[in-house]
Amino acid sequence: MKDYYSNLDEKIKKYFRILEPEFPEWLNEYINTKELLSQKYISVTCGTIYSKLFESDFFFSSLDHSVAVALIIWHFTHDKKQTLSGLLHDIATPVFKHSIDFLNGDYMKQESTEGLTTKIIEKSKQITELLRKDKIDISEVDNYHIYSIADNETPKLCADRLEYSLSNALFIYNVLDVKGIKEIYNDIEIQKNEESVKELAFRTKEMAIKFVKLTSYLSIMYRQHKTRYSMQFLADVLRCLEKENRISKKDLYTKKEKDIVKIMEESEYKNIFNIWINAEEKQIKTSQNKPQGKYYVRHGAKIRYIDPLIKGRRISIVSENARKMIEENLEYNMNSYVYMDEIETFM
User: Fold this and answer.
1) Among candidates 90, 85, 214, which has minimal Cα distance to 140?
2) Spatial distance between the Cα atoms of 184 and 164, rounded to a whole number of angstroms
3) Helices (H), 22-116
4) Strand order of the sheet with strand 309-310?
5) C-alpha distance across the termini of the chain, in Å
6) Is the pLDDT of residue 207 over 90?
7) Dihedral angle sign, alpha carbons of residues 341, 228, 334, 325
8) Least confidently predicted of 104-118, 124-138, 243-257, 328-342
9) For residue 80, what is the enclosing H or E element?
10) Which residues pair with 286 in a beta bridge?
11) What is the DSSP letter of 171?
């Protein structure tokens, strides 16, 4: 595989081989299209990788995620259309990923950028030619929601949720090693759910509970105080730069993250941006009262949780322990004002 795969980190290649030992060579031409390759410059961390508030410095890209989702779908279905829907599902992802949903006021659903998916595919000469060659209509691959293995409603398990859970655990939060990834992944199969719809599910109760423990932890990490603060902070700095015509909406889709970071570092917001970049976790504070004169964040974020199937039943029904872990996750309090003394109001 040229370009993408040849320059891929060996750790990611090893992870991909767990998801699908035999890489589907037909995917290569799709991956190496201009529109998909642009996704390799976007981190799945929604921009938090640039701050010392967060420990991870491993760059797992939006394209890495999309390829991994495609590999999971191919592994379980060997269906080209479903696999391509997974590969293309994040093709409209802008820099800083879901932080742009915060910019758009969509911090609870985080779906505001998905509407451009069809348009981007339609405008790509490379992708449309490949689809014509494979006799696949755009409508069969531009909406992965139509395939239950690729995507479904929370709290069901699908390829997208499974992938970001595994890769975040392995690369971003370092709470699972390769052996742990294999144990979970090798326990998964397709089952029929309560609605007689196909869904990724677990063979054993033990692995289903282990997965719930993992994803309940990750779910809180995705919306903990420093994460919500950072994603809204990035969104608000971008909002200010957009008002001042330093950055356009188009730039969020055409420039690399490092280019946008450079613009921030050279703007009048460079001081507060550098404070955030070099911040320590102890600087993140919470209060039940509005902090005067400080930049603060006070709202929730999308609650990501999974209640997987085990032999056709939800693990929360089968296991009291799993039910309690899910409930504790859902009860995480996001009502406080979150702020840093060092960053004053700038909007």
Assistant:
1) 85
2) 13
3) 28-31, 34-37, 62-77, 80-88, 99-103
4) 188-192, 198-202, 309-310, 313-314
5) 47
6) yes
7) negative
8) 104-118
9) helix 80-88
10) 338
11) I
Q: Is 2 helix (H, G, I), strand (E, B) or coil?
A: coil
Q: Residue 229 phi/psi, 5° resolution?
A: -60, -45
- Range 197-212 burial, b when 16+ CB lie within 10 A, else e: eebbbbeeeebbbbbb
Backbone torsions φ then ψ of 146, nearest 5 degrees: -80, -10
Helix %, strand %, coil % of the chain (to 5) = 55, 10, 40
d(CA 247, CA 250): 8
Crossing angle of helices 10-19 and 62-77, rounded to 10°? 20
Sequence-distant (≥ 6) Cβ neighbours of residue 322 within 8 angstroms: 208, 209, 212, 307, 315, 316
Give the model confidence (pLDDT) of 22-35 as tens digits: 999 999 999 999 99
d(CA 316, CA 24): 36
For residue 16, give the nearest of 88, 81, 64 by alpha carbon. Answer: 64
pLDDT at 2 over 60: no
Nearest to 46 by CA among 214, 220, 224, 235: 235
Phi and psi, residue 104, nearest 5°: -90, 5
Task: Read off the pLDDT of residues 266-316 as tens digits, 9 standing for 90 and up.
Answer: 999 999 999 999 999 999 999 999 999 999 999 999 999 999 999 999 999
Mean pLDDT of the chain: 96
| pLDDT at site 1 | 45
Residue 39 DSSP SS3: helix
Whether cis (ω within 30° of 0) applies to the bond prior to 155 is yes
